[in-house]
Amino acid sequence: xxxxxxxxxxxAALGVGWFGYGWQGLVFSITLVVFWLLLQFNKAVxxxxxxxxxxxxxxxxxxxxxxxxxxxxxxxxIVMLTRSLGQKVSDAPEQYxxxxxxxxxxxxxxxxxxxxxxxxxRPQAETA
Length: 128
Fold this sequence. Notes:
Elements: H1 3-52, H2 62-68, H3 75-82, E1 87-90, E2 94-99, E3 105-111, E4 114-121
């Protein structure tokens, strides 16, 4: 969700609570906003804990990751897909890489925290 949309919804909930039910409605609205923030924090911690227990930059299948990537995805969504933190390739542009056991790898480029471009590289098959 866009941060501006989230803040607008939080302010709208506070306004509706206050004007509809007075101070009790305001307290209820604050409770709802805090609960939503705790849910988001819990999700982020769970994703990072799962990713932290896996080797950096390793995935099961680079081809499957390549098929699931979409422009505009946030890094949190990519980490949820890979269950691993990406190996940082460069700072400018910001790039991360995941490699599978077969040697195939996916390199993603992020701008402003969003996925803008990715490439799949597969090793050449040896001919007999």
